[in-house]
Amino acid sequence: MNKMMMSNQSRDSHAAIGESKGIIMSQYDQAADTGSADVTNISVRALQNLIREMYFEKDAERGVDGTFMWLMEEVGELAAALRSGTPEEIRGEFADVIAWLVTIANVVDCDLTVALAEKYGSGCPGCGQFVCTCPDAEKP
User: Kindly report the CA angle at 92 between 88 and 98, in degrees rounded to 5?
Assistant: First the structure.
């Protein structure tokens, strides 16, 4: 990817941070005022922007290799939780795995919304259907 495209992507991502942060923060402000808020419908883009806002400086310093190691640790914790964890522990570990995956995407400047749309937006990448008809022996 050329520098101009990366610069435009970064600028667009940073512009979206304020919007995403504002939406999420208004939901948390609502929680503070009323004791509850609906934050169950966060978009991939909003999550990616929120994680970028909270952690990007540390993540960039750590780099891809160090961040990938944290992801693998969290995948191990998720595996343990799936075997013997409570529903709360399982949810927490899924959240950690997703957050570290998003972190790696931020470090390499990959817009996950675009990546997901390109890969899965037209159906299964194997058979092209929205309800996969790939043989069971094949991925996916």
Answer: 145
DSSP annotation of 40 reads S
Pairwise CA distance, residues 92 & 114, whole Å: 26
Nearest to 49 by CA among 68, 22, 72, 67: 22
pLDDT tens figures, 48-104: 999 999 999 999 999 999 999 999 999 999 999 999 999 999 999 999 999 999 999
Residue 70 near residue 100, CB atoms below 8 Å: yes
- 40 pLDDT band, cuts 50/70/90, is confident
Type and span of the H or E element at 101: helix 87-107
Tokens 């400086």 sit at which residue? 57
Structure token digits, residue 28 = 């948390």
Asked whether 109 and 6 are in contact (CB, 8 A), the reply is yes
CA nearest neighbour of 56 among 98, 14, 115, 21: 14
